[in-house]
Write a structure and sequence with these properties.
- This protein is an alpha/beta fold.
- It has 2 domains: 156 residues, Rossmann fold, CATH 3.40.50; 89 residues, Hypothetical Protein, Haloacid Dehalogenase-like Hydrolase, Chain: A, domain 2, CATH 3.30.1240.
- Helices cover 28% and strands 19% of the residues.
- The protein is built from 9 helices and 14 strands.
- The strands form 4 sheets. Strands 2-14-13-4-5-6 form a 6-stranded mixed β-sheet, sandwiched between helices.
- A hairpin with a 2-residue loop joins strand 7 and strand 8.
- Helix 1 packs parallel to helix 9 and helix 4 crosses helix 6.
């Protein structure tokens, strides 16, 4: 039976059974504070009754976001996190669902897993572009199970709308690390500094998320038949309407035969503006983290309590 480790805030429907915004990695109060550490966040301390630690005796699948959850943004997974993920594959099914395309999953994740038993990959579910695509490992390779692709007309409209609004708002940068706009088949993505931008540059460009949220709000009314969401640290993602990470999790339940109540989701963007938020609204048990180190701490404790 797995328990959430003591530094984690957790909950169904909202983080920690407390309130949205309380995250793993929040600083602890000073030693003379009378407020329990698990009720503190980076700005305020809210007096609420302590919640009992959640137990997950029926968890059969753990799903993760990729960027800033399993790995630094657009960077390879660290060796320690990769080893923990392989250990987790020995215990439960694992899904990775993120806004990146499959090539990003390969370079960040697949190519860095230290697998002594390649058959463990059959327990790994990959859902690129926010769950609009789904891949499974079989016959020695990764096979696409489905793709909810945009039409050519939808892509053209989405690319034009997001560029127009980015330029109007002054968010169209001259110095970038790769293309600003990407056609990912099932998703159009705006990346303010390009996909290969250094993590520090991304953080400096939009440290609070205000820019990408402003851009999302400007683009959404222009594309009423499409879904427009804040994505990674500097990105906005556009998919078919109604298709997001919640859609991906429902499809995962349908195709695996596992109930949503037997799944656990770990992500860094469970706030209302984040692309992990639909999973929380769906009612899947969620763990909020701020970085891969938080995720590693959770997986380590989860495995220790099995």
């Amino acid at each position: 039976m797995a328990r959430v480790p003591s530094p984690l805030i957790h909950g169904r429907g909202h983080i920690g059974g407390l309130r949205p915004g309380v995250m793993v990695g929040s600083p602890l109060p000073s030693s003379d504070s009378t407020t329990p550490w698990f009720l503190a966040d980076s700005c305020t301390v809210t007096q609420l009754e302590p919640q009992p630690a959640a137990e997950y005796p029926n968890v059969r699948l753990v799903a993760f976001d990729l960027d800033d959850t399993l790995a630094p943004s657009k960077s390879p997974i660290e060796a320690g996190m990769a080893a923990l993920l392989v250990d987790l594959l020995e215990a439960v099914e694992v899904c990775v669902i993120s806004g990146g395309q499959f090539g990003q999953f390969r370079s960040q994740l697949i190519d860095n897993l230290p697998l002594d038993r390649p058959e463990a990959l059959t327990r790994l579910h990959l859902m690129p572009t926010c769950g609009t695509q789904y891949y499974r490992f079989s016959d020695g390779g990764w096979q696409q199970i489905y793709a909810e692709n945009l039409t050519a007309e939808q892509k053209t409209e989405a690319l034009a709308a997001v560029e127009q609004q980015a330029r109007r708002l002054g968010y169209w940068e001259e110095r970038t690390w790769g293309p600003i706009l990407e056609d990912r088949g099932s998703q159009v993505t705006f990346s303010a500094l390009g996909q290969a931008a250094p993590v520090d540059a991304k953080r400096r460009w939009d440290p609070t998320g205000e820019k990408k949220n402003t851009l999302r709000a400007a683009v959404a009314p222009l594309l009423p038949d499409l879904e427009v969401r804040s994505g990674g640290s500097t990105s906005v993602d556009i998919t078919r309407r109604g298709i997001d990470k919640a859609y991906g999790m429902r499809k995962l339940a349908e195709l695996t035969g596992l109930g949503l109540d037997s799944m656990l989701f770990v992500g860094d963007r469970l706030d209302p503006d984040g692309n992990d938020y639909p999973v929380k609204v769906l009612g899947v048990e969620c763990i909020a983290v701020e970085n891969w180190q938080d995720t590693a701490a959770f997986v380590r404790e989860f495995l220790a309590d099995l």
